[in-house]
Amino acid sequence: MNKVKVKDSGSLYRDEESGAILNCSDSEYNAYLDLKNKRLNEIQDLESQKKDIDNLKNEINEVKDLLKQVLTKL
Questions:
Q1: Which of 8, 41, 65, 70 is the most exposed, having the fewest neighbouring CB atoms within 10 Å of its CB?
Q2: Which of 21, 17, 18 is nearest to 7 (CA)?
C-alpha cells in the first residue's frame, strides 16, 4: 500500500490504490478508542440502571399486591 502525504495536513495520507484518506496519528486514534470505550461504559451503566428500575417496579407491584391482600382480610 503506497501512501502519499495530503497537502497541508500533519497526519493525513492518501492510499494510492483505493484513494482513501488515512489518518496516521496514534494520539488521535488513542483518543478515539478512549471515547468509544467511555461511550460503551455509559451504555452499560444505563442498561444496568434500567434493569434496576424494572426490578424496583416489580417489587413495588408485589408490595401493592400484598397490601391489597392484607386489606381484604381486615
A1: 8
A2: 21
